[in-house]
């Protein structure tokens, strides 16, 4: 006998909406591609607010984990403990010796920074040895688009994430020649091509900087290291030597992060 008030049996063609979306999201996360809220919404064909609620719910249960780049990855409940967000303490610990070696090699101010929204924050460093030198900025923040390390980090964001980060436009910075998102995108195309960021008196007058990304998990950018020096110390012929030293330092940090993951 048929009950008109009862729902038809659920089958493959009639999934429970929110549950099905959550399961789809888990499969996306397990696919290994980090996801932003906007990308999640597009992949699931839902509103960004719905995507955010789903990601938040999965994060509370340990199925997702948000990294310092604001993207989501598999969490410990999916057996992905190595993908948990990297702590600042671990990053600084891994960077300490390589930063010391870089400082000894170049003699200029070297710094470690992370991305905080549209800014970079200086989290560690060693000051140059010369009387004329660039001072440390530990704890300070400034717009990422005017810093060499910030540019290296921004260059690894997707166009969607970059637009979301600067949806209100670039904040003014007195010494930066970049004033629009279109200008920044063109500049970051060159940054991606060469594999390092530059700062020619863009953070402040008289200062030159070069920076490269530090990665974890093989591809995820988690910070950047920079060499900052007075303009009077910089010679264009030395750029290749500085960049090689930065890349060697970044590789050493990444090796330490990888070794820590293996041990843990």
From TrEMBL:
<protein>
    <submittedName>
        <fullName>Helix-turn-helix domain-containing protein</fullName>
    </submittedName>
</protein>
<dbReference type="InterPro" id="IPR050707">
    <property type="entry name" value="HTH_MetabolicPath_Reg"/>
</dbReference>
<keyword id="KW-0804">Transcription</keyword>
<dbReference type="Pfam" id="PF09339">
    <property type="entry name" value="HTH_IclR"/>
</dbReference>
<dbReference type="InterPro" id="IPR014757">
    <property type="entry name" value="Tscrpt_reg_IclR_C"/>
</dbReference>
<dbReference type="Pfam" id="PF01614">
    <property type="entry name" value="IclR_C"/>
</dbReference>
<dbReference type="InterPro" id="IPR005471">
    <property type="entry name" value="Tscrpt_reg_IclR_N"/>
</dbReference>
<dbReference type="InterPro" id="IPR036388">
    <property type="entry name" value="WH-like_DNA-bd_sf"/>
</dbReference>
<dbReference type="InterPro" id="IPR029016">
    <property type="entry name" value="GAF-like_dom_sf"/>
</dbReference>
<dbReference type="GO" id="GO:0003700">
    <property type="term" value="F:DNA-binding transcription factor activity"/>
</dbReference>
<feature type="domain" description="IclR-ED">
    <location>
        <begin position="77"/>
        <end position="259"/>
    </location>
</feature>
<dbReference type="GO" id="GO:0003677">
    <property type="term" value="F:DNA binding"/>
</dbReference>
<keyword id="KW-0238">DNA-binding</keyword>
<dbReference type="InterPro" id="IPR036390">
    <property type="entry name" value="WH_DNA-bd_sf"/>
</dbReference>
<keyword id="KW-0805">Transcription regulation</keyword>
<feature type="domain" description="HTH iclR-type">
    <location>
        <begin position="16"/>
        <end position="76"/>
    </location>
</feature>
<dbReference type="GO" id="GO:0045892">
    <property type="term" value="P:negative regulation of DNA-templated transcription"/>
</dbReference>
